[in-house]
């Protein structure tokens, strides 16, 4: 019997943290191609998601990798683009209904400033019993340590819990720890699989 539902944020309930990266506004501002943007992201993101650097430091590191330098004006512009691009997905509307019958948790790889921004913008504390984040735990999915932290802090039984994420590598870690899992593709597919697991979805 399912008692707990654990959601990823980016790509499942909200736009991904890299949603701003390939936006028209970012490309017009930086005038670089996707390959260079990806490299700069891969260089700066690990320290941000693990909580080692804040948002300003992330964008400075990102820009330094991309252009060899950075300016405070560019940092401010990128922060603004991130906030404009961040949005909720259609799945977000399911949370109030699910919360009536289940405990709802989040397990997410996210930077500290972005987590605070999302919690405030989307009023996430109204829906979640607990949010476990890579920036606060110092370890990111798919590392099993962050799943074990969720199990301990939320006091849940993985066998009574469903984990929903849009990356197979994260799903595999959860499954190996005994979670029931759903690899997210879209809202309709997720709802169908939730019902197959006996979850009541209005």
From TrEMBL:
Annotated source species: Candidatus Woesebacteria bacterium CG22_combo_CG10-13_8_21_14_all_39_10
Regions that span the bilayer: none
Pfam families: Hydrolase (PF00702)
PANTHER family membership: ALPHA-D-GLUCOSE 1-PHOSPHATE PHOSPHATASE, FLAVIN MONONUCLEOTIDE HYDROLASE 1, CHLOROPLATIC
Superkingdom to which the source organism belongs: Bacteria
Listed name of the protein: HAD family hydrolase
């Amino acid at each position: 019997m399912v008692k707990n539902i654990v959601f990823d944020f980016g790509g499942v309930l909200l736009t991904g943290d890299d949603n701003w990266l390939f936006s028209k506004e970012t490309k017009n501002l930086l005038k670089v191609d996707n390959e260079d943007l990806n490299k700069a992201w891969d260089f700066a993101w690990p320290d941000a998601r693990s909580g080692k650097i804040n948002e300003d430091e992330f964008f400075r590191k990102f820009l330094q990798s991309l252009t060899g330098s950075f300016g405070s004006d560019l940092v401010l512009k990128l922060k603004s683009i991130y906030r404009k691009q961040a949005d909720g997905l259609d799945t977000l509307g399911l949370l109030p209904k699910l919360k009536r019958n289940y405990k709802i948790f989040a397990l997410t790889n996210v930077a500290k400033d972005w987590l605070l921004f999302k919690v405030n913008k989307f009023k996430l504390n109204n829906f979640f019993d607990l949010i476990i984040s890579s920036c606060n735990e110092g370890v990111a999915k798919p590392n099993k340590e962050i799943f074990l932290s969720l199990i301990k802090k939320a006091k849940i039984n993985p066998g009574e819990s469903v984990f929903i994420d849009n990356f197979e590598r994260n799903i595999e870690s959860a499954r190996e720890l005994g979670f029931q899992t759903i690899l997210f593709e879209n809202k309709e597919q997720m709802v169908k699989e939730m019902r197959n697991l006996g979850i009541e979805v209005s």
